[in-house]
Amino acid sequence: MIWRRKGATSAVSEVSASGADAETLDPETQPPETSDAPAPDAPAPDAPAPDAVVLDELSRAFGDDLREAASRQTISIGGDDDLPDAVYLDEEVDDAAAVGAPVFIDDDGSNDAVLPKDAKSPGIEPRLRQRRIGVRRAASRKRLWWAAIVALVVVVVVGVLAALGSSWFAVDQVTVSGAVYTDAAQLDEIVQDLRGTPVLLVDSAEVEAQLESIPWVESARVTTSFPDGASIEIRERTPVVAVLGSDGRSRVLDADGRVLAIIDGQPVALVWIAGPDSLDLVPGDFAPVGYSSAASLVTKLTPNIRGRVESMLVTADGSDLVMTLTSPAGPIEVRFGSPVGDNAQIEKLVRLERKLDDIGDDPVSVIDVSTSEVTVR
């Protein structure tokens, strides 16, 4: 887009280009010379400027329209352009308004610009005003179009989510794996609560937490599948020791000291733990540190020692533990000291293993591995 501003001088030049030349004017139209004219080298103070003289001559030759054209400011807009740049045009109009001159807008190069509104105040040519209105309307239509697209997308997404969250996609088929000793009644209650829940609304973390609250369940994993499926994978805890309770029944503990079940009698497959204190715990509770440390120690026994363990005697606070082993020469009392701490357990078991290898079948009644100096009696 090309912008050019024309002042009085440019107006004169356009007239000259059309064939009018000041030198070819009719002599009769030139002002007569008078004898009292001032000397050329001493012009009168009020004498008009040369451009004004030429303008007066052209005015007498072509009328007052030439003076009006020269006094107005014209902003030309290339006719090949689609729309004018309103920012630059506003600058041109502001400049013209600052000097108080009318502004004419010529967008086709025909120099037939029309003074907007009136010749005394600057304004915007009507065709340009229409173009600006058209640009604003096009921008508004574009914004409305994008707003409609966004609204349609939102409606579709909400509709899809509403459909997926309805009873059409509720959990109906639930598969459970890994449950052997897990309480069947507690497990079935959780499964029934899961059925009928929309697949998208199933809180897997919450269901897993409910399953892991069952004493036998160590970890659980819940997954869903469209349109109506859910699966539960359970990993159960491993029983390690049994402890006599205050009611005369045995508490089955895992390696963490958690009570898995309460049974009658003494299970032969588990290490029996006795102590000066009796337990009064229910399934899901955790035993005191002495019992839980003893249960953890059992998981670290080598096959050679594990097969010879007859029983353990431990205090509830874990300050002392005595292990009884079987041997051809008779029972061996192993004084272990405090069983608390994994590193301490491993160090003491290493000492015990070495000492058992050293003594072989020799008759020994006591092995003390509570310190680095192992003693035998």
Helix content: 25-40%
How many domains?
A: 3
Order of neighbouring strands in the sheet with most strands: 9-8-7-10-11-12-13-14-15
CA radius of gyration is 53 Å
Could you outline the blueprint of secondary structure elements for this entry?
Layout lengths: L2 E4 L1 H10 L32 H13 L2 H7 L1 E5 L8 H14 L3 E4 L19 H39 L8 E5 L6 H11 L9 H9 L4 E9 L3 E8 L4 E4 L5 E4 L5 E5 L7 E4 L14 H10 L4 H4 L2 E6 L6 E5 L6 E6 L4 H18 L6 E3 L6 E2 L1
Parallel strand pairs: 2-3, 4-6, 7-10, 10-11, 13-14
Antiparallel strand pairs: 1-2, 5-6, 7-8, 8-9, 11-12, 12-13, 14-15
Short characterization:
This protein is 36% helix and 20% strand. It has 377 residues and is α/β, with parallel strands linked by helices. The strands form three sheets. The protein has a nine-stranded mixed beta sheet, covered by helices on one side. The chain has a three-stranded mixed beta sheet with strand order 1-2-3, with helices on both faces. The protein has a three-stranded mixed beta sheet with strand order 4-6-5, covered by helices on one side.
